[in-house]
């Protein structure tokens, strides 16, 4: 079992802080370019929601160090659901209202960038797979993208949004 050390905790806080700053900036830019003044979310307006997400993620990462068979994403999801569920009258409405100010796209962008950097670090290992492995990987990525786009198109068309 991995124990939570001060070094791990500082690493978690540093990574989450960098991500939080990027999400705050991206969220502000996203709402400015929306061209709807009613949906603008300033950095200070988005800060409470991101601090809530920061706390949930940090708690999930810390607890997962003591439960190695349960991944941190399970803990983060569990804490988020418990804090934001409508039946939780203590925190539910506040958490939902504050986190609702954060857009999905600005929140996903730093995570996807981090995933890209992680893949880039293993590029030498990736090249050892050979051209067939690379071709399969590219086809899987294209298929996943096209599949997601087709599903989104069908759902948005069925709802009359587009």
Describe the structure.
The chain is mainly α and 162 residues long. Helices cover 75% and strands 0% of the residues. The radius of gyration is 19 Å and the shape is globular. The N and C termini lie far apart (50 Å). The model has no long low-confidence stretch (mean pLDDT 84).
In short:
By secondary structure, the chain is mainly alpha-helical. It is built from 7 helices and no strands.
Q: Characteristics of this structure?
A:
162 residues, mainly alpha, 7 helices
Outline: globular
The number of helical elements comes to 7
Q: How much helicity do the residues have?
A: over 70%
Rounded Rg: 19 Å
Strands, total number: 0
Show unreliable segments: none
Strand content: under 5%
Order of helices and strands: HHHHHHH
Structural class: mainly alpha
Largest sheet: none
* C-alpha end-to-end distance: 50 Å
Task: Give the integer mean of the pLDDT values.
Answer: 84
Write the layout of secondary structure elements.
Elements: H1 6-32, H2 43-64, H3 72-84, H4 92-99, H5 104-121, H6 123-128, H7 131-158
């Amino acid at each position: 079992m991995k124990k939570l050390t001060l070094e791990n905790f500082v690493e978690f806080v540093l990574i989450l802080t960098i991500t939080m700053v990027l999400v705050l900036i991206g969220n502000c830019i996203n709402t400015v370019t929306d061209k709807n003044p009613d949906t603008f979310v300033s950095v200070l307006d988005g800060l409470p929601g991101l601090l809530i997400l920061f706390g949930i993620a940090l708690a999930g990462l810390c607890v997962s160090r003591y439960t190695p068979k349960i991944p941190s994403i399970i803990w983060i999801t569990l804490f988020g659901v418990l804090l934001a569920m409508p039946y939780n009258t203590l925190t539910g409405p506040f958490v939902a209202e504050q986190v609702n100010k954060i857009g999905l796209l600005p929140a996903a962008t730093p995570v996807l960038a981090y995933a890209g950097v992680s893949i880039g670090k293993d590029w030498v290992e990736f090249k050892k797979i050979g051209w067939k492995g690379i071709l399969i990987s590219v086809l899987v990525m294209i298929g996943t993208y096209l599949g997601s786009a087709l599903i989104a198109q069908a759902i948005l068309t069925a709802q009359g949004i587009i």
